[in-house]
């Protein structure tokens, strides 16, 4: 179960194809197949199954994938920490979609220009999932909104083995169709469908709390969507309301036709694991500080 074998297993697990994994790794297919078979023999389990000519992870493979990624991440972290010179290696960044769209392009472009030896791997998810990924070591740092409705506050991070700094404050805006009457409280709403991300999104939790706190018995239906563009389209169609950060609204000129009502602020934190102090992470924090100057 060496480092190279774990990398091969993770590539096959992500691609669900020996052919694509071999191309990605620059290896011949027979070598990838042999290494996976050797790993299965060593572990004494079947990691992959084929169903209708499609490769899938077995239940044992699903469990092992988390451990394999964790071991590779720990090895990469150790390698970087033991070489405290110029930033290099892999830095896995997770962020809310709003942060990726409105806040990170400039600092990440500056970062890449200054430190081309660092491979940045960026992924998006709601805040709850980002915190979980940090704890599972599948991310090195994350940009998440705190506090979460499930309890994580800046003060609670230490108990989770995490630490962080506040980097942005977002104004959250209730967005309505252009012909909707003025809304002062939830009882003024004429539309009872909320376009939002799936559970785990802090902004969705803030929206639900605001709707519940107002004097109305109306039940709000949640329409889960995968992007802010989808949210805006739902609102523009007249079928939904939504709660969107002001910084995202400013990126979309078509939102000038929509009615808007500010409802409060939410802080975005850059969060990482306690003790994770690689040159690549330190350089990212410096790039963010320059963006604020």
UniProtKB/TrEMBL annotation:
Q: Known Gene3D superfamilies for this protein?
A: 3.40.190.290, Winged helix-like DNA-binding domain superfamily/Winged helix DNA-binding domain
Question: Which intervals hold domain HTH lysR-type?
Answer: 1-58
Which GO molecular function entries does the Swiss-Prot or TrEMBL record give? DNA-binding transcription factor activity; transcription cis-regulatory region binding
> At the top level of its lineage, which domain of life is listed?
Bacteria
The leader peptide range reads: none
Among the Pfam families in the record, one is: HTH_1
Q: InterPro entries from the entry?
A: LysR_HTH_N, LysR_subst-bd, WH-like_DNA-bd_sf, WH_DNA-bd_sf
- The answer on whether this UniProt entry bears the keyword Iron reads no
| Cell cycle is among the record's keywords | no
Question: Sorted alphabetically, which keywords does the UniProt record give?
Answer: DNA-binding, Transcription, Transcription regulation
Q: Its family? A: Belongs to the LysR transcriptional regulatory family.
Report what the protein is called: DNA-binding transcriptional regulator, LysR family
Write down the species: Paraburkholderia megapolitana
Q: Supply the source organism's classification.
A: Bacteria, Pseudomonadati, Pseudomonadota, Betaproteobacteria, Burkholderiales
